[in-house]
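haha ok so turns out i had the wrong file open the whole time. this is the CORRECT one, sorry everyone. sequence first:
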Amino acid sequence: MGEAKRRKETGTPAPRKASKRPFYIGVGLLILAAVVLGLFYLTAQPEPTSDDLPVASANAEPFPAELDQFGISVGPDDAPVVVREFADYQCPACGRFSEAARRLKDEYVDAGKVRFVFFDLPLQQHANAVPAAMAARCAGDQDAYWAMHDRLFDAQTEWSGSGDPVATFTRYAEDLGLEERRFRRCMTTDLHLDDIEQSRRVAMQLRLTSTPSVLVDNILLTRPGWGQMSAVVERELAAKR
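then structure:
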């Protein structure tokens, strides 16, 4: 019934429909709270003595240190603790973990307490993961591996869907002050493809199939992030004093 006709026949306006705006606001606040709680859960540092922290499997052998030659390492060779990450540059979860890895280098690697080793584990569903790993290693030929490593994760959303990743990565190389022709030649000749494949085989040998997979010595983290990683590092450092 039209409003004018309703007023004429009943003398009252049509009832207003209840606004759904408060409902949507409430749902939005609940989602925001869940995200905040999830981030806190991943980043909050448990006590190094917590029983909730992961431990090495029963009768686990030490990590085969000879395999580190297939990754890229930073930190002293005699550091008491070694953290190893197996990751895919195009993996969003790896992009989020990169902040924790950067903090690890700032707080533990630079202090000589930890050596950090990054292994390439490009996943088949990520078309640009291998070119990205190649870009980091080609930058490494000009002493800029970690600078490119960080740039790739920081700009992940820019290049992950690119149809010409080499052009994008070459631009990053130029931004880092690298020799463009040398970098591009490294990329287009697949100079480090065998190195990346060797790194991937290490992951297969260890039966690591998801990214990021992070180990503190021979302990596989169950929630890769700053909170759990730093707590396990502190526990391992204390045990070796």
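The domain at 69-239 is CATH 3.40.30.10 (Glutaredoxin).
again sry for the mixup
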